């Protein structure tokens, strides 16, 4: 394979990997945007979503689209429940306590799932045939392109929702200043709950798609992608939807190039190094607005 | 000031008595080796949590890379004792110096970041340290460093822990410590009062990292083998949990946090299926009922019960 | 009153926690004349929990069978379980607890090499033998040329498998070049990669490229794209099933047509589920037994009946460890750990789940190896080797 071809193939690999990070990062960044909480349990919500999809397909014998919808709804509700039970009572507590609670929720989801479904990985039955197209020696997988497409569509829809609809306006208001928003007649609790619902439902979509594409899910599958998605969100400027997608794609491409041309063992180190370098020059991420704090 | 020093003596006396009692229990084989080992782990965890508290609790810099510094101290220490047959004390010192120096180097650029951005940057640095170690064949790579002599005993852990506690307590109560507190409360205000914020942030970070290095050295000489898998970001979370559980900005709290976390983990060892579930629930419930941690900003020396017993000290 | 409400509340929270811990810690150890306590120190949470759990399942099945048949010398075996969180330091902690708190006579586990090495000193100090079901690195039982008296295993060691597969690649597949793709976070994988390279090059082949991944990775395409440029005759992937399935699937998608070679980490029905039967064609791996073998049918059926799914290699080795243990206790005629240690050393022609084993002087079992080929979703035995002959 010649070098240009190899570079292009790695680019394709990176973009498809990055689109998964981006999809998870979307939910991450939405939730962060509204209550400034690093929701470490997000990766585990993604795992639960994958399992719900798995059981919908294998136990209820549904096809992929209804399974995705079921997982979307159930996981969205789960996200709202988690918010109501674990985070809402701590709305006025120090932020770091909420963070510890999020870690607690993460452990809880991981190990209750492990208790019920065992640590053994599960495999999805073949849902739709693997379509791989070869264009000029470069292999492009149909499912990966589907994931990329879904990510792009969801990003556009979400941006529309946040920028143009009434709920979105309320979200932005609550994110800017929860208390003032409340005084303006916005039910902040409801808005936060909705945000958690949407964010978690997005994670579920990612979970099911990844499960089908990589064909293996396990109770700890959310840890690394969750962390990577967080990195992607911060890279793009946390709280900014297009930032999450761009951050995810950059991260994916960097990982692919480091694996392809340096060594996979330094892949994660390179991903973090890029993050730190970007932050040093743009301390609020690529798309972040640098707001000066006033005394 | 006089009040403080008197308290120091009281605490020191208390510590010596505690040491005598515990050492007696160990030598007399009243505590079996499982609880002995857990005493060592508690001590190491106290050093980790109190040093992280200096960074997170007192200076307000959200660091998630503490396990990385521990790894540096551990690996420098074991290379010296195992491959160069250096004395244990020298190895611990070198580990602390290496971790502290790395903290200093890393601290200068990254401490410009704030809040969650700093958190993810330090988490990333911790992971980078771990991945680099994993790729060094000289220290065994991912398989780990084997054949480490067992030097860590209760006396080493206890007195180094005591040193860490008193060092950090006195640092916090010094001019430098006050500067750190000012940074935590309001960085911009602190800066406008003429405090060199970068200097103090880096200072706190370096000291914290150096103590994490000491803890790493003690940890490594306790288990015969170390591998990079013991120093993941999950481990950093664990120390953060101890600090927050005890109370950010309370040394007493760091001790309590390390104690509670280690103790819960040890007590649940017989229930592997439920261990992590119970731990997770305990974490969530403790945060519900005491979001500011067990001790909040309080120290045992400031609490009513302590002052009642040692009333003569004075009134504040 | 100087006792503020706050500090009282605080004290009560602390006291409550300690009390709860004390109660939990208190119960658990009770002596019973009619049982022999065995400690199972496995990875139940953390990164490699799936391997720890599978090994434990196999081990528990063996113990259940033994107890159902009336136990050993009139005594039942009681398994005390402990979790090591997939971490070396926690493995020491769990082993210490089992030995000093629960007073177990023998330790079984952990699954992973590093964790076994970590607990070795504690066990040796207390003269409690360890049976490591699936720790394959040579240094588990031998250190600086001398045997660790209290450590035994029920699996073969890395050099055996690595050389079997290198020989197979050169002789049967006529391979001249190979690429190696190892799991950089696993001792097992790395050491097999090293042995394969040595033996393959000694037999006249050439390893043209080496790459590594990390356990729990999902996407391998970047490194595979790189490996593909080498265009080697065979691809050697000594790794565990979860990653292997994904690697083979993604490699075939990228246009790899070469044969893939693997080791006993591949031995799990999940590989075929993940990769798909088509992608898995033209792949070979070494393992301990073929499930078609009459000798092992009993174990495979019993396991499937008990747990509802077919065993993987970890379960099989855990089962073997259970059988080895029972045999040693029986021959020792007592539950004295040092007598059990002696008996383990003398294990000879013992029928276990995966065949017949004899303990060699380095505390490694001498056992057969088989090479299986994946063919249209089925596994066909292509060779059966006594590993000694493969060196």
Automatic annotation (TrEMBL), chain A:
Classification via Pfam families: BPD_transp_2
Subcellular location(s) per record: Cell membrane
Keywords, in A-Z order: Amino-acid transport, Cell inner membrane, Cell membrane, Membrane, Transmembrane, Transmembrane helix, Transport
Membrane-protein topology: Multi-pass membrane protein
Segments traversing the membrane: 20-38, 68-86, 98-118, 138-162, 191-214, 229-257, 269-288
Domain of life: Bacteria
GO biological process, any: D-alanine transmembrane transport
Name this polypeptide is given: Branched-chain amino acid ABC transporter permease
Origin species: Selenomonas montiformis
Automatic annotation (TrEMBL), chain B:
An example Gene Ontology CC term for this record: plasma membrane
Membrane topology designation: Multi-pass membrane protein
Chief place of localization: membrane
Keywords linked to the UniProt accession: Cell membrane, Membrane, Transmembrane, Transmembrane helix
Pfam families named among the record's database cross-references: BPD_transp_2
Subcellular location: Cell membrane
UniProt xrefs under InterPro entries: ABC_transp_permease, LivM-like
Keyword Membrane: yes
Keyword Flavoprotein among UniProt keywords: no
GO MF entries: branched-chain amino acid transmembrane transporter activity
CDD domains hit by this protein: TM_PBP1_LivM_like
Spans through the membrane: 9-28, 34-55, 62-80, 86-105, 117-138, 150-168, 202-226, 238-264, 276-298
Alphabetical list of PANTHER family matching this protein: HIGH-AFFINITY BRANCHED-CHAIN AMINO ACID TRANSPORT PROTEIN BRAE, HIGH-AFFINITY BRANCHED-CHAIN AMINO ACID TRANSPORT SYSTEM PERMEASE
Name assigned to this protein: Branched-chain amino acid ABC transporter permease
Originating species: Selenomonas montiformis
From TrEMBL, chain C:
Pfam families referenced in this protein's UniProt entry, alphabetically: Peripla_BP_6
Domain of life assignment: Bacteria
Residues in Leucine-binding protein domain copies: 35-375
Signal as UniProt keyword: yes
Cited Gene3D superfamilies: 3.40.50.2300
Keyword Transport belongs to the record: yes
PANTHER family, sorted: LEUCINE-SPECIFIC-BINDING PROTEIN (PTHR30483), PERIPLASMIC BINDING PROTEIN OF ABC TRANSPORTER FOR NATURAL AMINO ACIDS (PTHR30483:SF6)
Protein name per UniProt: ABC transporter substrate-binding protein
Source organism: Selenomonas montiformis
Lineage, broadest ranks: Bacteria, Bacillati, Bacillota, Negativicutes, Selenomonadales
């Amino acid at each position: 394979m010649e070098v240009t071809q190899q570079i292009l193939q790695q680019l394709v690999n990176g973009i498809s990997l990055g689109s998964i990070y981006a999809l998870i990062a979307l939910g991450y960044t939405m939730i962060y945007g509204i209550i400034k909480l690093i929701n470490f349990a997000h990766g585990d919500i993604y795992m639960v979503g994958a399992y719900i999809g798995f059981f919908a397909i294998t136990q209820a014998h549904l096809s992929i689209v209804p399974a995705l919808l079921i997982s979307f709804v159930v996981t969205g509700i789960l996200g709202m429940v988690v918010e109501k039970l674990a985070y809402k009572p701590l709305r006025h507590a120090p932020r770091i306590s909420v963070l510890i609670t999020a870690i607690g929720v993460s452990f809880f989801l991981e190990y209750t799932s492990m208790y019920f479904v065992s640590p053994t990985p599960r495999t999805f039955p073949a849902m739709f045939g693997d379509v791989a197209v070869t264009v000029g020696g470069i292999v492009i997988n149909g499912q990966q392109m589907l994931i990329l497409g879904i990510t792009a569509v969801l990003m556009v829809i979400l941006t529309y929702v946040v920028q143009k609809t009434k709920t979105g306006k309320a979200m932005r208001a609550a994110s800017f200043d929860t208390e003032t928003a409340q005084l303006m007649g916005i039910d902040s609790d409801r808005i936060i709950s909705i945000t958690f619902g949407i964010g978690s439902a997005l994670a579920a979509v990612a979970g099911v798609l990844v499960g089908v594409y990589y064909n293996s899910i396990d109770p700890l599958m959310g840890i690394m992608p969750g962390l990577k998605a967080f990195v992607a969100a911060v890279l793009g400027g946390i709280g900014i939807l297009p930032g999450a997608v761009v951050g995810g794609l950059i991260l994916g491409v960097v990982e692919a190039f480091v694996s392809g041309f340096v060594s996979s063992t330094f892949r994660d180190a390179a991903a973090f190094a890029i993050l730190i370098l970007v932050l040093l020059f743009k301390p609020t991420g690529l798309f972040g607005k640098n707001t000066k704090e006033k005394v | 000031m006089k009040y403080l020093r008197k308290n120091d003596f009281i605490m020191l006396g208390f510590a010596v008595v505690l040491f005598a009692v515990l050492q007696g229990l160990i030598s007399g084989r009243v505590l079996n080796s499982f609880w002995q080992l857990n005493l060592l782990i508690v001590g190491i965890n106290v050093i980790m949590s109190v040093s992280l508290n200096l960074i997170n609790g007192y200076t307000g810099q959200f660091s998630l890379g503490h396990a990385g510094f521990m790894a540096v101290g551990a690996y420098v220490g074991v290379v010296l004792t195992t491959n160069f047959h250096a004395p244990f004390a020298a190895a611990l010192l070198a580990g602390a110096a290496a971790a502290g120096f790395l903290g200093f180097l890393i601290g200068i650029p990254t401490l410009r970041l704030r809040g969650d951005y700093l958190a993810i940057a330090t988490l990333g640095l911790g992971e980078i340290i771990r991945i680099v170690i994993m790729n060094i064949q000289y220290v065994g790579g991912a398989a780990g460093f084997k054949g480490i002599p067992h030097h860590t005993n209760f006396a080493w852990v206890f007195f180094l822990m005591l040193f860490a506690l008193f060092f950090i307590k006195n640092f916090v109560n010094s001019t430098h410590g006050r500067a750190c507190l000012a940074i935590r409360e309001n960085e911009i205000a602190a800066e406008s009062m003429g405090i060199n914020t970068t200097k103090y942030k880096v200072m706190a970070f370096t000291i914290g990292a150096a103590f994490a290095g000491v803890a790493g050295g003690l940890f490594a000489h306790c288990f015969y083998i170390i591998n990079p898998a013991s120093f993941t970001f999950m481990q950093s979370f664990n120390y953060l949990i101890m600090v927050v559980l005890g109370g950010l900005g309370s040394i007493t709290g760091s001790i309590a946090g390390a104690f509670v976390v280690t103790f819960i983990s040890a007590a649940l060892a017989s229930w592997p299926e439920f261990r992590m579930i119970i731990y997770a629930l305990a974490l969530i419930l403790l945060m519900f009922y005491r979001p500011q941690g067990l001790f909040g900003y309080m120290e045992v020396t400031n609490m009513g019960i302590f002052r009642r017993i040692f009333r003569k000290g004075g009134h504040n | 009153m100087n006792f503020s409400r706050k500090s009282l509340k605080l004290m009560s929270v602390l006291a409550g926690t300690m009390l709860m811990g004390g109660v939990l810690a208190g119960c658990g150890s009770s002596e019973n004349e009619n049982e022999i306590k065995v400690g199972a120190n496995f990875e139940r949470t953390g990164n490699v929990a799936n391997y720890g759990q599978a090994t434990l399942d196999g081990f528990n099945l063996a113990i259940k069978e033994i107890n159902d048949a009336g136990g050993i010398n009139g005594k039942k075996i009681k398994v005390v379980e402990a979790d090591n969180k997939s971490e070396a330091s926690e493995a020491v902690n769990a082993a210490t607890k089992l030995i000093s708190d629960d007073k177990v006579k023998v330790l079984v586990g952990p699954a992973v090499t590093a964790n076994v090495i970590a607990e070795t000193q504690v066990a040796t100090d207390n003269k409690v033998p360890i049976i490591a079901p699936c720790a394959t690195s040579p240094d588990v039982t031998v250190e600086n040329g001398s045997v660790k008296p209290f450590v035994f295993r029920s699996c073969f060691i890395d050099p055996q498998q690595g050389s079997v597969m290198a020989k197979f690649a050169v002789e049967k597949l006529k391979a001249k070049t190979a690429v190696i793709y190892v799991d950089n976070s696993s001792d097992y994988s790395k050491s097999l990669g090293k042995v394969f390279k040595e033996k393959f090059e000694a037999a006249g082949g050439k390893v043209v490229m080496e790459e590594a991944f990390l356990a729990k990775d999902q996407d391998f395409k970047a490194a595979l794209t790189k490996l593909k440029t080498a265009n080697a005759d065979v691809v050697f992937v000594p790794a565990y099933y979860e990653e292997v399935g994904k690697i083979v699937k993604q490699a075939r998608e990228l246009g790899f047509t070469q044969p893939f070679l693997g080791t006993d980490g591949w031995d799990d029905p999940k590989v075929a589920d993940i990769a798909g039967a088509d992608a898995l064609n033209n792949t070979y791996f070494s393992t301990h037994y073929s499930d078609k073998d009459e000798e092992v049918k009993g174990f495979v059926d019993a396991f499937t009946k008990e747990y509802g799914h077919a065993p993987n290699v970890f379960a099989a080795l855990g089962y073997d460890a259970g059988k080895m243990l029972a045999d040693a206790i029986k021959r020792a005629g007592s539950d004295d750990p040092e007598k059990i240690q002696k008996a383990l050393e003398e294990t000879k022609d013992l029928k276990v789940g995966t065949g017949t084993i004899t303990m060699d002087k380095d505390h490694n079992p001498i056992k057969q190896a088989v090479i299986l080929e994946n063919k249209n979703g089925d596994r066909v035995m292509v060779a059966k080797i006594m590993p000694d002959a493969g060196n």
